[in-house]
Amino acid sequence: MVFVETKKKADFIATFLCQEKISTTSIHGDREQREREQALGDFRCGKCPVLVATSVAARGLDIENVQHVINFDLPSTIDEYVHRIGRTGRCGNTGRAISFFDLESDNHLAQPLVKVLTDAQQDV
Predict the structure, then answer these.
(1) pLDDT of residue 79 exceeding 80
(2) How does pLDDT run across 43-66, given as a tens digit for each residue?
(3) Per UniProt, what is one GO molecular function of this protein (predicted)?
(4) pTM of the predicted structure, to 2 decimals
């Protein structure tokens, strides 16, 4: 599962990955309900092993067995970061979260991010 901040970027990354022969779908607020359900179904059954999503679109979704969460864009708040990475490693399963950090746009998250990771006994 790949998180981005904008609908446009969700579509761009999903299209790019598909062009690279990686089956990918995306979900965001501009999708109709039918399209969202199709994308989620394709992700859950493994037809599309990559789901690119905005935080808003992914809120409230319970998707089992998410093994990887990638924050292509870090969210604006540390609470949203915790919510996103909570998508992996549920119910005793293990998972991995990878985040790309941009010094210019993400600097405000540096200290809170170090605290969250340290509190969770993760390498920083």
Answers:
(1) yes
(2) 999 999 999 999 877 777 778 888
(3) ATP binding
(4) 0.90
Domain range list for the chain: 2-119
The CATH number assigned to the domain with range 2-119 reads 3.40.50.300
For the sheet with 24-27, list strands across it. 24-27, 50-54, 2-4, 68-71, 96-99
Lookup: tokens for 124: 């920083």
8 Ramachandran zone, left/alpha/beta (phi>0; psi -120 to 50) = alpha
- For 18: left if phi > 0, alpha if psi spans -120 to 50, otherwise beta; the answer is alpha
Query: What is the rounded distance in angstroms from the CA atom of residue 34 to the CA atom of residue 120?
Result: 38
